[in-house]
């Protein structure tokens, strides 16, 4: 699967490397063949997550260290013009008549002009042919164009060729397996019209969508799967209208009035590229409302009649492969939720979509989420009319800033950023991890800087913060091994022999984290690193980049360049990157020299530029150096957000390689990711359970999910 990602987007220097990590662990404790047998006989493939791992385990990683050779929009335009290929300049894509053609005709009759275009992503050059669904890199597209011009004809692909063009056999089989599972669940799910009235009402209440009419649910083909009490949202191919996948959302009762929901997609999230509602879009539609949740789309559509689509993985992620489907809209309104994080996300996503056509709904007391607005009878059309343009203005008055200022005052805590779950003392001082900031960490050689920042970043990543590592000093495999140990809070290598299944269950969960690694090792040029970071932000919605460490970017430059000036230049570049992409950058910098006593702000290598540009400066103090007991202390010496500084002790645990909390006595697999939903439904869950036990409904055969 990782291979698909890489070839698909032509960015081979970003690889999730859990495969290698397990490989290393396996060697460490002479991992036996028993586990492989279990896998090949499918004994572990009881859940979609395991299916995914089973498939990916057999893949070999693509070649690392391939050069990043980004193509610019100017290059693309020039190339197409020089080849005499007419193109349309869209918002985020260039559109050409596709040189590819599927050998099977369009069977649905639903195809329109849009379906025959080939869309080229203006940022990456990767393309998507709507009719054949072939995706590829800019280089591959150039090959197709050359082929077309040589033969003077359209390149005819069979559907199978089309599939194989972008996917390995393993990948295809895995995908087909997932699709079959999805199909089974879909077939066993009930349309709302087939539920008893009482049951239908309770299900709606359970999912806080009492005001969503049955007609709307029918229009969007939403179903209910009784065995797991889940809403099932379909993913239809916009071209053939066949079922490509599903998203299941389930509610679990929580203490108090809140419920927890779990979400599962088939295919799994990395491949779930559904814009829910796309099959209902007409060619003539020129405006759309983008939401972060399916029920919000139902609410918008029902209350306003305006076409609405849901992002596949919540408010903060828009895979670029979906951009071609949004090209037809000259007005896109982003209404992603009711919290400040959704507001930030909408501003970030508007950059991808082209800000000139984007309008943003600012969350506020009178502007809740679409689902809540419908429930409390607030006019959704009115809220949409209040949307503000996303295009930044050069000069503004307080009148335009007023809402933002008041919003910041009201949501002070939430704006402080994502809070660490493992480092409460860091929350006390820094308040949270905020987008667009630059953090500098220093500490004596070997004091544990990498280990500490690895745990901090992992903590955030586990909460959904897309993270990209640039580990220039230690290999990605070693780093991922440290992270996996920190994630499980146990020595997994000791468990591999006794409980291989448990280890792989942990690895499965770890693999689902939004975590990526640059494959640069040793010294590298800052320009290439920055280019890779920019691409990662665009492709994977990364919001935290860790660079370990700055010194590895210095050696590539000419010997004649002044070292301090060079470092200043690199720091400015990272600062600018953080600001322009809204991405947090954490930069490890070695201290100036081995100084006696504890380190100070001035101990950081180079001029004062690093500490001037940084929003946060952290020092990992080694107490042994000042006659202490060997413990470490983290000192926050700069905090631009609210000025609070301070220090707290860090206790290192050698078993778990962690600076936080005790080791797990019996490591258990972590719970699946969960989120909170409104509390309307706790009672409804109980009632539904009662109703289902009492009623004489015939339950379909349970399918193991
Ligand atoms: N507080 C600690 N006490 C003892 N060992 C530690 C501590 N913190 C980290 N280590 C161990 O020390 C080794 C080096 O740690 P790490 O690579 O994190 O240090 P570093 O400061 O990043 O090193 P460098 O200066 O070379 O970049 C690792 O094996 C790690 O497990």
Give a description of the structure.
The chain has 26 helices and 26 strands. The chain is of the alpha/beta class. Among the domains are: 73-167, no CATH class; 275-393, 3-Layer(aba) Sandwich (Dna Topoisomerase Vi A Subunit, Chain: A, domain 2); 430-472 and 520-626 and 640-647, Rossmann fold. The strands form five sheets. The chain has an eight-stranded mixed β-sheet with strand order 20-19-21-22-18-23-24-25, sandwiched between helices. A six-stranded antiparallel β-sheet has the order 8-9-10-11-12-26. Strands 1-2-4-5-6 form a five-stranded antiparallel β-sheet. Helix 2 crosses helix 20 (476-488), helix 19 crosses helix 20 and helix 23 packs parallel to helix 24. The longest helix has 20 residues, at 169-188. The protein starts with a helix and ends in an 11-residue tail after the last helix. The structure holds adenosine-5'-triphosphate. Adenosine-5'-triphosphate binds next to helix 19.
Chain-wise SSE layout:
Layout (H helix, E strand, L loop, with lengths): L1 H8 L8 H11 L4 H8 L7 H10 L15 H10 L5 E2 L3 E5 L2 E3 L14 E5 L5 E3 L5 E2 L1 H14 L3 E3 L1 H8 L2 H20 L1 E2 L5 H10 L7 H6 L3 E3 L4 E7 L6 E11 L5 E8 L20 E5 L2 H11 L3 E3 L12 H4 L4 E5 L4 H14 L4 E3 L9 H6 L4 H6 L2 E2 L8 H13 L1 H4 L8 H7 L7 E5 L6 H14 L4 E5 L4 H13 L3 H7 L1 H12 L3 E3 L8 H15 L3 E5 L14 H19 L2 E5 L20 H5 L2 E7 L9 E8 L6 E5 L23 E4 L4 H13 L11
Parallel strand pairs: 3-7, 13-14, 13-15, 15-16, 18-22, 18-23, 19-20, 19-21, 21-22
Antiparallel strand pairs: 1-2, 2-4, 4-5, 5-6, 8-9, 9-10, 10-11, 11-12, 12-26, 16-17, 23-24, 24-25
Bound molecules: adenosine-5'-triphosphate.
């Amino acid at each position: 699967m990782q291979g698909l990602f890489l070839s698909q987007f032509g960015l081979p220097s970003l690889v999730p490397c859990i495969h290698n990590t397990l490989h290393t662990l396996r060697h460490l404790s002479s991992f036996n063949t028993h586990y492989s047998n279990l896998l090949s006989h499918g004994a572990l493939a009881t859940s979609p997550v395991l299916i995914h791992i089973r498939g990916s385990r057999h893949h070999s990683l693509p070649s690392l260290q391939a050069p990043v050779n980004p193509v610019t929009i100017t290059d693309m335009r020039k190339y197409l013009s020089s080849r005499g290929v007419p193109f349309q300049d869209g918002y985020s894509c260039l559109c050409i008549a596709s040189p590819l053609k599927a050998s099977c005709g369009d069977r649905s009759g639903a195809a329109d002009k849009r379906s025959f275009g080939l869309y080229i992503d203006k940022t990456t050059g990767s393309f998507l042919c709507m009719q054949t669904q072939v995706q590829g890199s800019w280089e591959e597209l150039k090959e197709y164009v050359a082929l077309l011009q040589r033969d003077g004809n359209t390149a005819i692909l069979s559907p199978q060729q089309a599939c194989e063009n972008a996917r390995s056999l393993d990948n295809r089989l895995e995908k087909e397996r997932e699709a079959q599972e999805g199909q089974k669940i879909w077939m066993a799910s009930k349309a709302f019209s087939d539920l008893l009235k009482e049951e239908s009402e309770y299900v709606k209440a359970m999912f806080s969508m009492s005001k969503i009419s049955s007609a709307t649910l029918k229009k969007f083909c939403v179903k209910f799967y009784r065995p797991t009490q889940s809403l099932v949202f379909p993913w239809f191919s916009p071209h053939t209208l066949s079922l490509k996948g599903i998203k299941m959302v389930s509610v679990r009762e929580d203490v108090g009035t809140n419920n927890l929901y779990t979400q599962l997609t088939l295919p799994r999230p990395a491949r779930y590229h559904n814009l829910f509602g796309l099959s209902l879009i007409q060619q003539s539609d020129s405006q759309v409302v983008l939401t972060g949740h399916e029920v919000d789309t139902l609410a918008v559509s029902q209350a306003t009649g305006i076409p609405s689509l849901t992002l596949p993985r919540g408010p903060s992620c828009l895979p670029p492969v979906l951009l071609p489907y949004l090209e037809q809209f000259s007005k896109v309104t982003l209404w992603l939720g009711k919290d400040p994080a959704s507001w930030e996300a909408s501003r970030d996503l508007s950059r991808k979509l082209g800000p000139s056509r984007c309008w943003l709904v600012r969350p506020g007391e009178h502007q809740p989420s679409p689902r809540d607005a419908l429930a409390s009878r607030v006019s959704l059309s009115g809220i949409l009319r209040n949307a503000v343009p996303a295009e930044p203005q050069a000069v503004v008055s307080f009148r335009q800033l007023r809402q933002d200022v008041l919003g910041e005052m009201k949501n002070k805590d939430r704006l402080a950023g994502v809070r660490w779950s493992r480092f409460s003392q860091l929350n006390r001082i820094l308040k949270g991890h905020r987008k667009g900031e630059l953090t500098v960490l220093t500490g004596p050689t070997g004091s544990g800087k990498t280990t500490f920042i690895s745990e901090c970043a992992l903590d955030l990543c586990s909460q959904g913060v897309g993270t990209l590592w640039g580990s220039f000093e230690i290999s990605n495999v070693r780093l991922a091994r440290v992270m996996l140990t920190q994630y499980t809070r146990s020595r997994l290598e000791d468990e591999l022999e006794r409980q291989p299944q448990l280890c792989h269950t942990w690895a499965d969960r770890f693999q689902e984290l939004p975590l990526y690694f640059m494959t640069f090792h040793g010294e590298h040029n800052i320009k290439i690193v920055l280019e890779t970071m920019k691409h990662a932000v665009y492709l994977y919605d990364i919001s935290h980049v860790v660079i370990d460490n700055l010194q590895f970017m210095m050696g590539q430059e000419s010997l004649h360049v002044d070292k301090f000036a060079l470092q200043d230049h690199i720091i400015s570049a990272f600062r600018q990157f953080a600001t322009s992409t809204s991405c947090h950058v954490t930069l490890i910098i070695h201290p100036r020299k081995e100084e006696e006593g504890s380190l100070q702000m001035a101990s950081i290598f180079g001029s004062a530029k690093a500490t001037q540009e940084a929003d946060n400066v952290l020092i990992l103090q080694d107490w042994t150096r000042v006659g202490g007991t060997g413990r470490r202390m983290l000192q926050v010496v700069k905090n631009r957000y609210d000025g609070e500084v301070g220090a707290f002790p860090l206790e290192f645990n050698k078993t778990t390689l962690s600076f936080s909390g005790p080791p797990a006595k019996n490591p258990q697999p972590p719970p699946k990711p969960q989120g909170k939903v409104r509390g309307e439904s706790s009672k409804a869950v109980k009632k539904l359970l009662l109703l289902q036990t009492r009623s004489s409904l015939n339950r379909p055969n349970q399918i193991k999910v």
